[in-house]
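I keep forgetting this: the sequence line spells out the residues, with the fold written below as integer tokens. I include a record here:
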Amino acid sequence: MTLPVQDALIKVGGSRWEAALHRNGQVEHLRLLSDDGWVDVDFRKGAYAGFAWHGEWNGEKHVIGVTLDERDTDGAIFTGSSGALNFSLRYHSVDGQFAVTAAVANTGKIPVQPLSLGLMTGIDTYMEKFPDWNDKFFPTLLRCERTHFWGYCMRPEGALIGIASPQPIASWSLQYNVGYMEGELEWGGHRVETFTLDFLHAGPLPERHPQRLSELLPGETKEWTILLLPFKRPDQLLTSLAPVCAAPMLELERTTLAKGECTCMTIHSCESVAARVLLPDGRRMTVQPEAAGEGKYELLIQAGESQGHIRIEVENGSGKQSEAIVSVRPHWLWFLDKARTAALICPPRATSHCESWYGLYTLYSSQQYFPDREMLEQTEQIMSSIYPLMFDMETHEPLLVKHRIQNVSSMVGVLVDRYEATGDEAALQRASDLADWLISHAQYPDGSYRAGKTHYTSVIYPAKSLMELILAEKALAECNAVWRERLIRHTASVRRAMDELVAADGDIDTEGELTYEDGMISCSSLQLGLFALMQPEDERGPYREAALKLLNGHECLANLLIPDGRQRGATRRFWESQYDVAIQPNMLNSPHAWTSWRTYGTWYAYLLTGQVYYLEQTMNALASCVQMVDMSSGALRWAFVPDPYVRARQINEQMVVSDWSRAQEGHHHTLKYPSQEFVIGEQYIGMISDWHEANLQDNDVHEHFKCLAEVSLGKAYVAQDETGRLRTWNCSAEEKNGILHVSPTEPKVELVHLNLGVKKVCVHFESGEISADLRETVWVRKDGRIIRDLFIGQ
């Protein structure tokens, strides 16, 4: 069908791009040529279409219309105006790549100081259903530097689009959807409509952002060029964007260091560079990175005695600046100790949401590392007071919101930790009974665990909780027929659930609004990974491959390139603040507690494959997450918010519970209560359950410390990566006379994982030396035992 003249699409393009444009300047479709062929980029229609000028000033939001002004075979220019502001939008090629150049001029007599003014990109980031979401580009990273901008969008199937501007951009924002309405009140949804690049924006903005892009003076014109470049792999991004931005791009393998450790930062730059370093103790220094090849420099970053953050600002000869943050941490046990203290300050409570009593994980697991009779008694008193309010003591049935089967499975996990902390077999018996209730009431014939008809196998990992129970039951089952029968029953249930996950191949549901959901994907991967590790080598294949496929797709939701030790490895979650800490509207919570679900997944992936890439991700993410404990004050925070500017409201008057004999239910919409408005931007958010009594879920932060206990406490790692380099975590390694000497650098290390191939090794535990003649990847215990598979014990 031929379109009417007024709606006919404008076809433009260059050697590496093709676009179809509407006459209002918005993109109907865009194709970019990558090394692997053409990549289709979908664009939104309606209110979120783009590219389009959007702004907010004088208390009103504005969408500025533009119309076609001129065109040629390579591009088109659109122009429009609003009051004294004249706007233009040009599509064209820069070095063969797709580019959008936007300009605005103030023809008036007074300054224009908008709250925001920029381009809504219109790129379709709306991940609604399977399998469509596999072809949507999620805005994985958007980063303003003082002199330029860069970032990328990524699909679950692996394609990337780099986004770069050689000009400074004040800010950015994601357009979050509305999930559902409660009368006239909006609850934030689980999808991102698209995103906006705010060329001008009012403060306050994060210190790294340009600070003087808040106004347009009379007679002034400003112009920005945005380039979109397709990539096959993330490791191509920084090298390629450096010349586009004409700025240094900073690459860090390790974003957190223990005291005394060092890391090498690679700087991609077409010009020579200098670096200014601000140390945690306040000292400043200027250093000269060393040339390491064409367009590449290296800077060695050494952690001193002071814990906190090292800020590195790199500047090239043209004055372009980029910033990195490397965290310097105390030992891992310090974080667990502080989290335990916080779990009694913000105590677990009986509610309809297991997130409210997640602190029990930390309280019980820390008892194994810091035995303390008084704190254990307090923990047991909490458990004794809240458990009967949530579960029937005889039937083990949940007493409220029975469809939230994650409440049941999470309590199974807590009771396993209680058993391991106290040796009380009654705790494991109760966990076993709860598991039986879950299996009989929530497992469907296809093997999945469900809440009603909704697939719940991957909502707070119920199968992993059962696997934790199974691992605890194994020792008892060796000499007890009753426990053996329970072990067999629970193992069979988990196998059915994992077989169903393999068969589903990503076509699964989640709690709340369906999307390519951070936790749904990471929990699927981690459960499949752990189950694979519990199988003999020749039976792992289907579970391992399914776990890795999901985990690799999940990279589009993970912060794997950001040079920031506060955020590295964090997953891009954005609807939890409204439930956990009574803050609205939506904003990224990254890291949030559920980031640690990916950390389990990458750890299991490393143990399954030996690929150091996964171990590096694991340790970087773990270190970012445990920094929810403030390394200066020791206080526990809830999450980190990377959004640069969010006008938010939070409940500011204490919500009091009148009847402590009942478990609390439901959520609390911010606007139903007295609240206060303030601006949030690239910062930590504190916990609030120390002064609010109502059902809030900020205790979910304790997932980080549950993960810490499983992945890193009492463990050290030595591995040889694909380049032949020796990599260590929680230990040092030095070769002398043909023997690799490994010395733990963390307290209470009892296991060392050696991924070295054929090698003679001597491990220097606190209790003595253990020598081993390695032929394969193994764990070495401090008692001298060599273990090939940690979750099988062989």
